[in-house]
Predict the 3D structure of the following.
Amino acid sequence: MEMPDWSLIRSFLAVAEAGSLSAAARTTGISQPTLGRHVQAVEAALGVTLFTRVAQGLALTEAGRALVPAARAMRAAAAELALTARGQAAGIEGTVRITASRVVSHAILPPILARLRQSEPGIQIDLVPSDTTENLLFGEADIALRMYRPTQGDLVARQIGAVPLGLYAARSYLDRRGRPATLDDLMHHDFIGQDRMDQIIRVMRALGMEVDRSFFPVRCDDPLTYVELVRAGCGLGGILRAVGDPDPALERIDLVADLPSLPVWLTAAPRLRQSPRLRRVWDALAEAFAA
């Protein structure tokens, strides 16, 4: 029996964890036909059937389930090898992969990264805008900017600041509906809420505003689209002040003084902190947010 190489095992594990070829293709960026061929190659090499087709996609056979722990151990070993090698890189030149939320990637990071590129032209940046949690220990990113404290114990994490929120409306909306002068006025305006998430409801209730989902005539969970809905005049909405204040189409409403600030955590795998290149990017991000 010939052992399949890691690239084939990685595809098998992606399909096993995603539950279908299509879902695995979305998470890995590998096409469905290629993933299918990889799974068939593993089955041929090992002489077992790994999946059966079900209505929802693919289900692991007993043999497939037995292979998953070993495949995950191979993934961890491959990540360990890559992290060790990258952590030992002595030069400043090379690539650093940064992941951050879509809003932070869109509105805050570009000028920071432009300044970094001017001072360190040998460093290349891969920016991954994502509202999902990339796994730093598996090499999916080198540095993560997150709005919450990471819970994975093997990571190095540092809170580098906090970004305040503000309540905004489009100037065109306020010209049409009037500018609220009191909290009672405020509650007679349209607010933009969330569809399946409830953070806005929880914040408003904490501020003494007893609202539910039906209070919001327009709802959206996507943060970039949410900002555009406010800009278009659909109603009032909470936006990062770093996004709302510079926007000439928006006007901040200061009747609510206790809006929370979102903490910003800088996170990396421990070995990568030993890389001069990564350390330079880490320090640049920390200095920018501290300022």
Remarks:
- The longest helix spans residues 62-87.
